[in-house]
Amino acid sequence: MPGGGKSTAGRQIAKRTQRRFVDSDVLIEARIGEPIRSFFEREGEARFRDIEAEVIDELSGAGPAVIATGGGAVLRAENRSRLHGRCDVVYLRSSPEELYRRLRHDTQRPLLQVADPLTRLRELYQLRDPLYRETAHFVIDTGRPTVHALVNMVLAQLQLVGILALPDDAAGEPSPPD
After folding, report:
1. Which CATH number does the domain housing residue 46 bear?
2. Domain count, the chain
3. Domain range holding 130?
4. Is 111 exposed, middle or buried (0-12, 13-18, 19+ CB in 10 A)?
5. Residue 174 domain-assigned (yes or no)
6. At 129, which helix (H) or strand (E)?
7. Is 91 helix (H, G, I), strand (E, B) or coil?
């Protein structure tokens, strides 16, 4: 969901696991040469989702990385399939009310530029939550932890199932993957 912490936590997870970090929305903006919001308004959601699907295909097949996708990436079955089949997907689940608390002053997210953003977040959640769950291998309920605590929760889950090696240094940082 928008405001779920994907980019913020993703950067820290990438740093801690010594992997590259890629935010699909940043890559899309570089590709289209303008902010997503203006492209979205001019070209429409369908054209944006076409470009997003191309980027997801490229990123999901490009080798080890931490990828933060846009919140609507799961709307297309091809994206869900590629992400689930090629990646270890973590869904950072937050309630619509928590997301609203984080995003109430945001003016950059096109889908939230409506009269009642909380109602819109509830609608998005109702539509997307089942799709996120279908795509994800892991669901982390975020609540209101610090970024550090959230990152530790994600890394602990990945260590628990053997995706990441257990910490081997005094700082408790995970070892880089083989």
Report:
1. 3.40.50.300
2. 1
3. 6-160
4. middle
5. no
6. helix 117-135
7. strand
What amino acid is encoded at 135 in this protein?
T
CA distance 60 to 82: 7
Quick one: pLDDT at residue 169? 46
DSSP symbol at 5: S
Per-residue pLDDT reduced to its tens digit, 4-55: 889 999 999 999 999 999 999 999 999 999 999 899 889 998 999 999 999 9
* Token reading at 33: 């040469």
Report how far residue 64's alpha carbon sits from residue 14's, in angstroms, rounded to the nearest whole number. Answer: 10
Global pTM reads 0.85
**DSSP for 29-58?**
HHHHTS-HHHHHHHH-HHHHHHHHHHHHHH
Query: Could you give the CA distance from residue 107 to residue 109 in angstroms, rounded to a whole number?
Result: 6
| Cα of 38 vs its chain's centroid, Å | 21
